[in-house]
């Protein structure tokens, strides 16, 4: 049951931030010349032509022989995509597994992702923000602000994006400066106690440059109640600022971006989903303290509140030089991310187990590429890439005296250095047919430092390893008409070797580091536009085989259950994807997408049995063979449908607008071991908005929105704790923020027509 609507926050900080955002609107120079230009992709989408950068150059999406979804700002608004995890509402092939903190959460595409507690493991899906690939996938989990579009590239993208894009890329593009002085302040309040304010100021600098500044502040009380001390968990207070400056003389272009964000969170506290009667925990009766387990349970009894605090800043410089026959582009970036976690791990009102510790990830990267002009039958892109990053992590688990064997205290450093060269070449076989081939050679050095602080004299383990891999892609595309293109492609994927840096690390893990993961993907598709660009569609079929798939298994290490990363064998993912848009009449935009994904394990002998699994159910000698089993958290079928509608109110300068979307997904099992108790049944979530705005420049807007319109409860993750000190069945869940219906009000005021 949700708590009452009491909008609360630190009043002083809220006033300071709100004042700063309002000040953005009046701190601009009194006069400015028209300069700069809106992002090419935004301008193109307004005309019905979608421009993307999926091949590291601005192209009409019909020119790209790959499965690419370009999600516009209008679609993001209709689906109420405000946080990174909300991308699943508009991209059916994307799934997210949310854990206790962002470092343990993972993103999957077409069923493929790497869920691991290890510090050094590469993600399968690369997250790119304004041309900068994030070192840790957990850096992406947070608010989405001032977004121009999101591109979802499905299937291996190693040739152009590198070794951590073996399942795909999520490319986030923020808005560019406007060519006229503009700005806004936007506020949001909800009945589940969230308050947000977001402000922007943008405009020209002289004749050839422009700037954009965006800042935000948010406070959400939380929706999990701790009955022990009457506090609310799963809330957060966050703020941040991003500045972008662009200069373009026609020959030389420069883009500078600085981004800072800070979030103080009460974690992602799990709750009891089911506890079998009479179950003991660590030999003692479970003290539920009034908690009623169930799908909508939002109450816990823990003696300490969770925390998951993050601080991140990024800086990048993109410089382009037009050489006539080609353009030379340099992208330099530095990122620094800190995460501090702490969690009460035992679900009791007394001290039994508490664990956590800080992360600190940082990376410098440099990319240099030469891109041919779009003239003649031959085009090319060649580039070099360098990255040097490391992640420091400390971990401590403290326990009551009767569980001293579970205590852990260690710190570690995972380092990675990458050198790569890549190229993509295209040749027009005719005016309708084009052949494109590309490849990347990648050399990586990974290192580990691990210190076990439990012994009186700490034990230190150190190691280094190198690997060189070649990946490639070839595609053939043919234009049936000027507005309909079909293609076929083959690509290879690679995810680098890794040390499994987690509790229980020893020399054996250095000597037997996790091997690289390799894949081969086949894809065919057709995409096009029709009805004078009022409609668009894309249909894709894919088939990908993976060898030495990297997956987390659960084993007993030192008498305690411990996640361990392993190469589990082979798997295959295949399916069909569809997406389409339609503008049947002025003011009405419709969108829909769907994915059928069959992701199965082909070979995984000696997998750990799930708790209580019998020989009849496949558990023989303490292990099972998972060949033929479905991948975890991969729905077979998922779709979303929605739209926007706007119309003037008679002859007045005011328009009424409404938007809605509905996303439905098939049932999933959150456990790789096939545990029938960790299955989430199929469900659908609907969101809707209605509001009023100024018709001509949209300088003011007021809207009412509702999330989870039909109040459908569901779990984001289900985990079986039965072998984790429990004598009977105990299932815990991660309850998502929109597990139940909530309503909000949004106000926006500005000038200059900045959207």
* Poorly predicted sequence stretches spanning 5 or more consecutive residues: 1-46
Describe the main β-sheet briefly. Answer: 22 strands, antiparallel, barrel
Report the sheet-strand fraction.
Answer: over 45%
In angstroms, what separates the terminal alpha carbons? 37 Å
**Would you tell me the overall average pLDDT?**
89
How helix-rich are the residues, as a percent range? Answer: under 10%
Q: Count of helical segments?
A: 5
Radius of gyration: 26 Å
Gross morphology: globular
Structural class: mainly beta
- Strand count: 45
Your description of this structure?
- The chain has 755 residues and is mainly β.
- Helices cover 5% and strands 55% of the residues.
- It contains 5 helices and 45 strands.
- The chain has a 22-stranded antiparallel β-barrel.
- β41 (683-694) and β42 form a beta hairpin.
- It is globular.
- Mean pLDDT is 89; it is low at 1-46.
Write the layout of secondary structure elements.
Elements: H1 11-24, H2 40-46, E1 51-52, E2 59-60, E3 68-72, H3 73-78, E4 94-97, E5 106-109, E6 125-129, E7 132-133, E8 147-154, H4 158-161, E9 168-174, E10 182-190, E11 194-205, E12 209-220, E13 224-226, E14 231-233, E15 236-248, E16 252-265, E17 271-275, E18 280-281, E19 284-285, E20 299-300, E21 307-322, E22 326-344, E23 353-372, E24 378-399, E25 408-428, E26 433-452, E27 459-481, E28 484-495, H5 507-511, E29 517-530, E30 535-547, E31 550-557, E32 560-567, E33 570-582, E34 588-603, E35 607-608, E36 623-624, E37 637-648, E38 654-665, E39 668-669, E40 679-680, E41 683-694, E42 700-707, E43 717-720, E44 730-734, E45 742-751
Parallel strand pairs: 6-9, 13-20
Antiparallel strand pairs: 1-2, 3-8, 4-5, 6-7, 8-9, 10-11, 10-45, 11-12, 12-15, 13-14, 15-16, 16-21, 17-44, 18-19, 21-22, 22-23, 23-24, 24-25, 25-26, 26-27, 27-28, 28-29, 29-30, 30-33, 31-32, 33-34, 34-37, 35-36, 37-38, 38-41, 39-40, 41-42, 42-45, 43-44
